[in-house]
Design a protein that fits this description.
Immunoglobulin-like; 15% helix; binds copper (II) ion; Plastocyanin; Cupredoxin; ET_Amicyanin
Length: 101
């Protein structure tokens, strides 16, 4: 019983050490909101797919790809300074920019 309690405590600490999100983007009404965010170098952006189950795929050539997603979140950490333009692979008119650094 004591061992079980110790395991539960380790799991709880593991969850709380998840990296912080520096900017949040909501995907809703077939757009990114906000479409532009700024993060420091090493900053993490989290996209939340909240478009009634409509599928989207957040994609920046050679940088990241969320995969096709309808009801979840996607996170990416930006380690290089600069501007990263991205779009939805399914709806190419959905575009956004991450300013890093
Ligand atoms: Cu889309």
């Amino acid at each position: 019983m004591r061992l079980l309690l110790a395991i539960v405590m380790v799991l709880a600490v593991g969850c709380s050490s998840e990296p912080d999100v520096d900017a949040a983007v909501i995907i809703s009404n077939i757009r990114f909101e906000p479409s532009e965010v700024s993060v420091p170098v090493g900053g993490t952006v989290e996209w939340t797919f909240d478009d009634g189950g409509l599928l989207h795929e957040v994609h920046a050539d050679g940088v990241f790809d969320s995969g096709v997603n309808g009801d979840n979140t996607f996170r990416f950490t930006f380690d290089e300074p600069g501007d990263v333009d991205y779009q939805c692979s399914i709806h190419p008119h959905m575009t956004g920019t991450i300013h890093v650094g």
